[in-house]
Amino acid sequence: MNIQQFRFVRETIRRNFNLTEAARSLYTSQPGVSKAIIEFEDELGIKIFERHGKRIKGLTRPGEAVAEVIDRIMREIDNLKRVSDDFARRDEGTLVIACTHAQARYLLPKVIPEFRRRFPKVHMSLAEGSPPVLAQMVLHEQADVAIATETLALTPGLVALPVYTWEHTVVVTPDHPLADLPANKQLSIETLAQYPIVTYDHAFSGRGSIDEAFAKHGITPDIVLEAIDADVIKTYVDVGLGIGIIAGIAFDPRRDKGLVGLPAGHLFGAHHTKVAVKAGAFLRDYIFELLEMLAPELTRDVVLSALDEKQTGSAL
After folding, report:
1. Do 274 and 162 contact (CB within 8 A), yes or no?
2. Model's pTM, two decimal places?
3. How far apart are CA 186 and CA 83, in angstroms?
4. Angle formed by the axes of helices 3-14 and 61-88, nearest 10°
5. pLDDT of 209-257, one tens digit each?
6. Quick check: 49 and 66 in contact, CB under 8 A?
7. Which end of the chain has fewer CB atoms at under 10 Å, N or C?
8. Neighbour count for residue 239 (Cβ, 10 Å)
9. CA atoms within 13 A of residue 81's CA, in its CB half-sphere
């Protein structure tokens, strides 16, 4: 057996068992991939893939175990390369941050300028998407870290660490009836239900807790528009489409002078934005620095301890 066979098996799985796509991504021929996999199966004495004629349909039960071992081996091989690169070039390289629009717009501008000052030779990229997509990017090593509120902590294979806690804010125009709500009076679900609502798409920024809060009161809210980022929500609130429910981090009275913000944490609870890395991945020095810049308590020792704990748990 050899690394090439491992690579062929792993890529076939990644490409949803499509040998043609796997061969194309590996810059080789489909018959060559098929032949190498069959030889590997013969050497092991087991079938890794379920087949229907010449088509691969999925993994066999022993194939699932083989796939896990191959994934660990290839991850460690990648780690060896990163160790070599890290000691050869400790302050330069690439960094891909997968994040939601909210984190790119409101969190990272507080961090990236200082990171660039410390590591001017590191080429940075931001990849925006929904939390499930971000999680998969890190798992498939298309990104080094992911930052989001949903999904990351629930995704096997990721180590998710807390960055900050936030609550929702209701935003209205200054002439809206809610803008005159007395300071000593809190919003209620019943009050919000009286107005059309603009808020997040279901995959973003605590939308689930918004739906749960209304459902708990037996109310179906009039959600007239869903969006993936707070800037769009605020725009449509400003033109009178409805009241907005956004993440508190997205509202700044100095910047959003045309809107009034009303605290809504008592209605929709507290939410925790996390940063995630792949379990077992080798992290360069500047990634440890980034994590600590995102949250001062995420020191190298804390991160390493979380990674070790995840690996130990997986081994058990």
Report:
1. yes
2. 0.69
3. 54
4. 110
5. 999 999 999 999 999 999 988 999 999 999 999 999 999 999 999 999 9
6. no
7. C
8. 8
9. 6
